[in-house]
Amino acid sequence: MEQTLSELEAQALSEKAAFGGDAHIVCDNLVRIYKTEGVEVVALQGLDLLIDKGELVAIVGASGSGKSTLLNVLSGLDIPTAGVAKVGGMDLLSMTARDRLRYRREVVGFIWQQTARNLLPYLTARENVELPLKLAGRSGRAQRSAYLLELLGVDYCADRKPDQMSGGEQQRVAIAVALANSPTLVLADEPTGELDSETSAEVFDALRKANKELGVTVVIVTHDPLVSEQVDRTIGIRDGRTSSETVRSSGGHAQEYAVLDRVGRLQLPRDFTNALNMERRVRLELESDHIGVWPASPSEETGE
Amino acid sequence: MNSGVLARVHAGAVAVLALLTLSATLLVSGLPRAMNGAFDDALSRKLDSVTAREVDLSVRFQPGSGNGLGMRDRSAFEQRDRLVRSELPRPLSAIVRPPGSGTSHMSLRTLAAPVMGAPDKYLDMGWMSDAAQRIEWVGGAPPGPPRASGGMTLVEIGVTQHAVEKMGLALGSEYVVGATKPLRLKVTGVFKAKQPDSAYWTHHPDMLRAAVSVKPGTTSDEFRYTALIADASVSTLADTDRQVVYSWILGLDTAAVSSLRVGELLTALQDYRRDLGLIEPSWGSFRLDSLLGERLTEFRTELATAETILFLVLGGLLLVALGVIVLAAQLLLERMDQALALMRARGGALATVVRTGLAPIALSTVPAALAGYALSYLVPGPATPIVHIAPLLVLLTVLAFSAVMMASAHRTPLHERRGDVVSPKPSPRRITLEILVIGLALGGAYLLRTRGVTTEVSEQGQDPFLLLVPMALTVAAALITLRCYPYPLRLVVRLAARRRPAVPFLGLTRAARAKAFSVLPVLILLPALGVSVFASMMATGLDSTQKLAAWQRVGVPIKLTTELEFSAEAIERVREVAGVQEVLPAQTGIVQLGLGAQRFPVLAVDLAGFARIAEGSPVPLPAQPAGQGIPALVSKELKGVTKLDIGWQTRMTLTPAGELAAMPGFFSSGKFAVVPYDANERAGTRVAPNVLLVKGAANAQALLAATGVATQIQTYDQIYSEIADDPLTSVIRTTLLVATIAMAVYACVAVIVSLVISAADRADALSFLRTLGLSTGQAQRLTVLEVSPLILITALVGLGLGLALPSALGPGVDLSAYAGDVAVGAYEVDLLTPILLAAGLTLVAILGALVHTIITRRRTLGSVLRVGD
């Protein structure tokens, strides 16, 4: 049926629901290109991501897939080249330096993989937790640091320096540091990368505690696929794009999904395509409740 | 974060920074102080070394015929004294002594009053305001007031024993002096000076001794003496037509003359000379009789050269010190980087981060700079503006550098650049800047060559732009070195790549990638080497120049002179003194030219023997002329005469057979002649040797004892040490030495600090290679190979620069002012010291690298590889 001009105008003027709606983190077609002396490295190639407030999400991917770049963008430490990146409604692309500073002070906290990078070796745990509070010029530092250390079960380490603590204790103190300014979002880059599985569990417990008790959104970046057992949702990244999602149901069962982007693109898992020797082209068939994907037959491959 | 914590945690780096700041501020504010103090000392020693008569301000008044100043008594003199002092410009009034102290006094004397009946005698009258303090009476009675006697005024006079002996002025004798209004003089007393050798008496030598000179046109002598009169006799001379000169001596306080105010003093002297001329009426005027201006001008010429050399060296030192301090600050910044990056990431504002990082730097540099500045007050010398400015400059540079570095590093919170992706290319902006610096340096060098750095320095002061040229040249050389050094290295790398061993290839490849060594150490090493090579060349140049001057002055190792004669036995005894290798007799004398009053000195010596005695002397000696009669080598002033008729022991005729500019040890200017040793014999009389030229190293006392007559001794060593002890020379020498040592130390510190800064990167790379099978020994060789090419190339360029600097400075480095008034041409270039210096520095730097690898070997592979992975 042909549309009249007035109908088209009305359609153009009608407000569409924005992508992501009221999600806490919205990334739409996010691009980050590193450019040095004429050579370009595309770290994020149009990544889409939605994370709701209070979620505990893991982002997994192989080395070089762009997950750390995504985390740096979300933490306000790096500025994306193009696309949309919003956290709590704040546009990370159009922030001024002052806004960015305020964002780091009030909205986000983060934890790096290396314990040495999270904590200053010559300050005690308490002093380390108080540092961001001091930088933001907040009062009530002693109470806040005592509360956080106790919440994360490391109050006995308050007067210890990092070298007097175990790796797990150090990372839990690092979580306390990240939570110091009451952020709404905590980003963790391989927080358990240097830890054994038992200590890793302790750290995840601490992150979960922060997530549940303080209502903080937690995004964990890791290349450990087993992390999906510890979080609500696991987002896979491949070649700078989100490729899959694994959602853990309330019963503990995890179901992996492929990600369908806004223009209908879908990344098929490499295992699947390899197993069926899918290359270049596939055949799709719409059924009543699903879409079937078949490898192209040899005759189709040669174009006969 | 508490800055004290940061400072405490990085105590090592803070201490290094503090120590370097302390030493640099002490050097840059202490050395100019010491320099100016030594300049002042040199000036007062120079002024002390000439007679008070030359440098005191003597204001004279000689009334025209038929007039007088009406100076009847002491109070009239005192009134005029106040007048001439009131006219003194402020700079001069500060350096003259008040009336009655030092050599300040008043005097008068008559001029050339012939003694009636004795045509060869002149007896003048003189009066000194402070005669009572300066003399004591040894015979007769002090002269009394004048009185009438036989229709004339009788003035009583006092004389010295010398005058009594030379002129026969016996006690009680009377003389009539003066052609027009004659006066009768009566000798009533004999006096002697209390301190005849004091500077005071240089104003009145004519009162101490009778002067004897040849009467023009005759061979006979004439005598002149100035006798002392009483205060009461002054009025007798006031209204006569006698020629009288009144003098007000304003004694110079040499210690109060500052080298910094020489220019002011010269202007003040000119002003004073002019103002004095305006005081009195036209029939006579006050005039200033002083050579202070000439002496100050001479000093200013010497000072200009000294200042040029020292400013250049100090400028280099300042540059190097700044570089090293900045490098140490960089070390501290690297150490604090992680904490600051974390602060910035956790929400620290840029200003907060910079403030936090700056605090430990300020905490270490500010007290250190203050301490260095305070310590510089222990160095004697006046505080010129540079003394205050230099420490401030050091402090501001290090703080500004640190602040800018931190601000640019933490401007964006994430400073993990993808440096692994590509090797950085130089930005066009940087290349343009470098080309500009090189262009400016070359342009400046051209100007320097054409104008010279000391052109009219004495009038206009140092040209700051031209003084900066050597520094700009150094920086330009450093930039060219940094840009170009990888190219020759890459050729070597290509060769190394074809060989089997991997270490040379890897080491040289890393070196050629220029990542191992940052820009800063080259910018420090190069000026340090360049300027210290320049300094050592100046020092050796000065030394050889002074040796030359000493040879010029004494001629032979030991010279014995007597006013009498050395007998054959005495010569034999001298020959037998221990240490004496050879003795050559010679004869000197003042001879009369023709029958006139002109006299000039002559030396009779065997020049071949002289050359043997003076073996090792750099001063060339002429060959003895051969010929009939008495062939003589004569000075320029005597040239052009075919025969020289002279009167020595007898009349003789010299035949000029060649020209001689100077005779080392004897004559350097004016009229003189050198004749064969037996000249007197050839003229028909005998040779009476009064000079012995001695080769060897003998005891002076033994030599003097062996001669048996009153003898003066002059040795090369003694003269050399006299020249070398010249205050201005020793200040140059000391400053050059201190600067050279300081720069050598700074260069080593620069190498070591930069090794420490790049240690983590290098350790990572080495550990990685070690996992691939690199042995410990190979790792050490790799580091040395990585670090040494740039050090070697820098050392070579620095050496070349240092050697080229003196010629780039052209006439700016004229050392002849320090060679004891002897004209010196090009000085010898001693290559050994600079080459040793450069080689030593290179060796120390490379050894540092080696020690560093040995220390890093202690780290376990695991710990190194874990970090940052």
Automatic annotation (TrEMBL), chain A:
One of its GO terms (molecular function) is transmembrane transporter activity. Keywords: ATP-binding, Lipoprotein, Nucleotide-binding, Transport. InterPro entries: AAA+_ATPase, ABC_transporter-like_ATP-bd, ABC_transporter-like_CS, ABC_transpr_LolD-like, MacB-like_ATP-bd, P-loop_NTPase. The keyword Magnesium does not apply. One of its GO terms (cellular component) is plasma membrane. It holds the Pfam family ABC_tran. Residues 25-264 form the ABC transporter domain. Signal peptide: none annotated. PANTHER family: ABC TRANSPORTER RELATED, IMPORT ATP-BINDING PROTEIN. This is ABC-type lipoprotein export system ATPase subunit.
Automatic annotation (TrEMBL), chain B:
The keyword Magnesium does not apply. It comes from the Bacteria. Keywords: Membrane, Transmembrane, Transmembrane helix. The chain crosses the membrane at residues 309-333, 353-374, 386-410, 431-449, 465-485, 516-539, 736-760, 790-811, 831-851. The keyword Transmembrane helix applies. This is Putative ABC transport system permease protein.
